[in-house]
Structure formats: structure tokens, C-alpha cells
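Handoff note, outgoing to incoming analyst
You'll be picking up this chain. Sequence as last confirmed:
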Amino acid sequence: MDIRLVFHEHPSEDIWEEYAFGRLTGEKLAKTEDHLLLCSRCQATLVEIDDYIRLMKAGTDDYPRRAKRHSAAVLLFPSGRRAAVASIAAAAFVAVIAWIGVPDPPTASVSVQLLSLRSGMDRATNRAPAKHPLDLHVPSTSVPAAPAYSFEIVTADGGGVWSGEAAVKDGTISAHMPKRLKSGTYWVRLYAPQSKLLAEYGLRIQPAP
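Most recent structure output, in case you need it:
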């Protein structure tokens, strides 16, 4: 297979898999490495393929420990020209992670039974830990009946944070709020259709332990 060095053309994943296993030789190997030295996209592709190969080998029960060490040495510390290529690819992968960030790990939702507080924010009620999704609940008997409901969460100064539709089941108006709030004071507003405000609840988000 001929590998073109035109900027907008890239070797296929099959070629990079052959390269990762050390199966390319001669002119094909030279062209592949020349392309890799200049192409950040293919550098990231090669790092992903190398990581996949290592994970597959590590998950094989009968894979000998000495072979695993040898594979890691070949993939992470190759000799000659491939060492420079692998170093550039690894640096590119780290740069991509730094740019897009690492997603937060999944956390359990916290159920919040909202109570309407007439005398301001009560420290003993309507609290939840920071950085958790919330399941908001309001007794349907505590607000005027409506054909549908929706929630809105705003900051203490009224800045919008999240809004979503609510469902009514077994006498409770509920909604799942996937956004993870930072610690601070918020207001949860319950609306009927046409943005009719039915109730407002204070919510204090406390620092996670």
C-alpha cells in the first residue's frame, strides 16, 4: 500500500496497527515515520492504538509477566528513530488531554425534598453537597395544580444555572438535574406553563466532604 505524504491524507488505522506491532519495513516504514513526525492527528492515533494494545495484553490471563515488561519496553522506550516518533506522539496526547480536560468521574445523585421557606434561607433545610447531580422533589399538594411543571435553578443574584421539565408521579413533582453545582446559595423555581411562577425554594449547596 502506497502511503502519500500530502498533508491532508493520512495512513489508515490498519497501517498504524501494523506500525505499532513493528511489522512495517523498508520504504513503507520510512514514509510512515516521516508522516508521523509532522502530523499531530496521526501522533494521537498511534498513542491510542498503543494504549489499546497494552490494555488488551494486560487483560489476557495467560500473558507472561516478562512478555508484558518486554512489550512495555518496546512500546514506551523503542530505540532509534521510533523513539523520537513515540516521544512526539506521547507529548501530543498529553497536550490533547490538557486542552479538552479530564471528565469528572460519575457520582451518585442526591435527593432533595424542597420546602418553601417563608422566613428566608434556613440553614437546616434544603441543603445538598456540591458536585453531585440532584433529584428535585416537591409535593404536588403544596402548589397549585397545573397541566405541566418545570424547574429552574438560579444563583443568589438571579443568574440562570439550569432548567428542565418535571414529571408528576404518586403526588410528587420531580426532576433530575444533572449539572453539578458549586458550593453557594441558589434558588429553585417551579413554573407552570407560560412561565407562571408557582413557588421558589432556597437551596444551599455545601462543600463536598
